[in-house]
Amino acid sequence: MSPVIPIRSDTSSGCSDVVPLVERGQREVFCGLTGIIWLHRKIQDAFFLVVGSRTCAHLIQSAAGVMIFAEPRFGTAIIDERDLAGLADVHTELDRVVQQLLARRPDIRLLFLVGSCPSEVIKLDLSRAAERLNTIHHPAVRVLNYSGSGIETTFTQGEDACLAAMVPGLPAPSAPEAPPALMVVGTLADVVEDQLRGLLERMGLKVDFFPPRRSQEMPVVGTHTRFLLAQPFLADTARALQARGAQHLGAPFPLGVEGTTAWLQAAATAFGVAPELFDSVTQAARQRAEKALAVHRQRLQGQRIFFFPDSQLEIPLARFVHRELGMDLVEVGTPYLHRQHMAPELAWLPAGTRVSEGQDVDRQLDRCLADAPDMVVCGLGLANPLEAQGITTKWAIELVFTPIQGYEQAADLAGLFSRPLQRREKLAA
User: Fold this and answer.
1) Contact 208, 184 (CB under 8 A)
2) How far apart are CA 96 and CA 94, in angstroms?
3) Which residue(s) pair with 48 in the sheet?
4) What is the pLDDT of residue 376?
5) What tens digit of pLDDT does each residue of 186-221 get?
6) Three-point CA angle 256, 195, 289, nearest 5°
7) What is the pLDDT of residue 89?
8) Taking Cα atoms as reference points, which of 275, 270, 237 lies closest to residue 251?
9) How many helices (H) does the chain have, and how many strands (E)?
10) Continuous H helices in 138-220
């Protein structure tokens, strides 16, 4: 029996050799602290302490939609005027805040000190602070640090920095010749993780997920590890894992039926799963997803879409809406183009697709308005002005916050694109 799905259904190489339009100018980006909103829900015994301003605190509080009395697993140690004026020792103040936090929340086992734009501007060395606090509170609590600043990065890179900071502390195999093991890297909603785990385990594969739901369940990593990326914005994390000897399994990302199948196939091939078993495990879910997508395809077929650079999800999303929903790609912008990780995705884009890397907002807006697409995927700051121009928009950040990976979420992902057009039609009626 032949493999269930080929990496390409034709002989062209799509956009494999694309020369992107590289732009460096004014950017419209969201803050890297945003990653805390999904990370704090995932690692259930961790706490994310942002060292920043009141603006940082308001951002996370409002973006997460969590009431103060709900006791979320994040907070802000606010840098105030006394700290900035040198009237107080910032490190002493931070030690005091951490001591109060751990006394109040004895369930914390992993504490992240998260740098922000304000803490980086005043050159506060949080790595040294984390080392000092770790000597005080370890082994009851492990203290790590990473930067969530939005000065030079896009907002999803906050997760990348967080996971990369965790890699050096992952346990090594106890035996030098440990059997090959599979690990899925990237924060997924629990329901998605359970679905993917179920499919892989039914193929006979044991799988670890990183990050885990509890800090005491960190996966073992070494030369025996084979890992799949569940998110396309984890370049630093992948590099850190490869430095530990782990092997990356290149694959499209698990968005839509086609992407999920190819992603699962990469694991199945690496671990020698028989094609017959792979087909029997995935067939029912594939068929359900394909049937559900057909409804959305009727509305989206032939619609023209423009992606502004925002989350690094743009290329996999463009592949999905084009190949599975029949949308025409006007431009696919991404903050950063990682050639190696995106190679399978680029091969699936139609030849001649306009791909841009980086951002110059004014030039991209000019191109967008001249192209007059039916839909634009963009950040919050651009959506209202474009809507005022009569262009239907989809907030890019919603595609990060919503569970969209896997077969069961394929129709939900398609709905995120079809609903704005449906809303536009209703308003015009």
Assistant:
1) yes
2) 5
3) 74, 112
4) 97
5) 999 999 999 999 999 999 999 999 999 999 999 999
6) 35
7) 67
8) 270
9) 17, 14
10) 157-166, 190-202
Whole-number Å distance between alpha carbons of 342 and 345: 5
What is the spatial distance between Cα 423 and Cα 429, in angstroms, rounded to a whole number?
10
- Mean of the per-residue pLDDT values for the chain? 90
Per CATH, the number for 32-153 is 3.40.50.1980
| Among the ranges given (45-59, 156-170, 181-195), the one the predictor scored with the smallest mean pLDDT | 45-59
At residue 2 the predicted structure's pLDDT band, cuts being 50, 70 and 90, is very low
pLDDT at 120 over 90: no
For residue 358, the one-letter residue type is: G
What's the pTM value of the predicted model, to 2 decimals?
0.92
Options 3.30.365.10, 3.20.20.140, 1.10.12.10, 3.40.50.1980; CATH of 181-276 = 3.40.50.1980
21-27+290-428 homologous superfamily: Nitrogenase molybdenum iron protein domain (3.40.50.1980)
**Sheet strands side by side (includes 355-359):** 21-24, 355-359, 328-334, 304-307, 375-378, 392-395
Map tokens 């839909």 to a residue: 375
Instruction: Identify the pLDDT of residue 132.
Output: 93
Q: Which amino acid is at 337?
A: L
Question: Is the pLDDT at 11 greater than 80, yes or no?
Answer: no
Question: CA-CA distance, 53 to 120, in Å (whole number)?
Answer: 11
Report the DSSP pairing between strands 46-52 and 21-24.
unpaired
Whether 263 contacts 407, CB under 8 Å: no
